[in-house]
Amino acid sequence: MNSEDYFNNIRKGLKVWDFILDLVLDPVLDLVLDPVLDLVLDPVLDLVLDPVSWVSLWKT
Asked: Is the entire prediction scored with pTM above 0.85?
């Protein structure tokens, strides 16, 4: 086997692993990260992007 065949086999193997990780990890990350990001990022983004919250924060 020459070096070109070797690297082609590695590329094929990486494509298979990429497909498997996408198939398995995407649903798991969607189930776990979406609620966590909603709980953490939504209040932060609301505070940063909502000018009314800044005004109420300054008045308190």
From this structure: no
